[in-house]
Amino acid sequence: MSFGEVVAIALAGLAAGTINTVVGSGTLITFPVLLAFGYAPVTANVSNTIGLVPGSVSGAIGYRRELSGQRSRALRLGTMSVLGGATGAVLLLVLPAAAFKAIVPVIIAIALVLTVLQPRLNRWLSGREIDLDGRGAAVPTAFAIYATGVYGGYFGAAQGILLLGILGVALAQDLQRTNALKNVLAGLTNGVAGVYFVFAAPHVDWGPAGIIAAASILGAQLGARYGRRLPPTALRAVIVVVGVFAIVRLLVK
């Protein structure tokens, strides 16, 4: 890798670690950067997933105060995230690379729509809170978390936004506590997918994966400390721009 490539990937990892901790969609930063430097889509996705795992752990640690009192909830829903992440990771390697190239532009487009609509979704969800611990909510919530884990293990862009939406419906609590739980669940999904890719994927490029890993750890801590101060509109605008770039890159590659 050239010096410029190393710097660009490191900056992308830093931004992704920050964004993932604050809301999600960090993959929409790192994935297009890897595509821009000529990495094949599946290689870029696998290497990116492995690289972002340490950042996910760092982000969860950064929100540890908001996790107080949520241990049993995190364990219960975390099990579904692990199962979903493992399913999605297996699907990524079992399905042909052509399927990934065909599916991911659609997934990114959906993720971008969710990113843009997030403020409206949050307002809509705020008046529709139900108790996750109630029997009527437990099964559908668990299934929704599992389905999100499958998506996260397969690709993962905007996984955090999906989780915030699901948890926002299910939990009557402060958004920052919900975001802390989101970081744990997304981290578990990325973690199990990353471990599976380490042992099963022939597509890992350890150079960019290592750079993203180191940068995302720092980015996650910055996100936990300063991310709440970022203008949400500006953050969403950046995500949309890089997401559109990724779609174009995949369609013309």
Q: How do the helices and strands line up, and which of them pair or pack?
A:
Layout: H1 3-22, H2 27-36, H3 41-62, H4 71-94, H5 97-126, H6 135-154, H7 159-170, H8 175-200, H9 206-226, H10 232-252
Class from helix and strand fractions: mainly alpha
Q: How far apart lie the N and C ends?
A: 20 Å
Beta-strand share of residues: under 5%
Task: Figure out the total of helices.
Answer: 10
Radius of gyration, whole Å: 17 Å
How would you describe what is shown here?
- It is a single chain.
- The mean pLDDT is 84.
- The protein has ten helices and no strands.
- The chain starts with a helix and ends with a helix.
- 81% of the residues lie in helices and 0% in strands.
- The protein is mainly alpha-helical and 253 residues long.
Offer a few descriptive terms.
single chain; 253 residues; globular
In short:
This protein is mainly α.
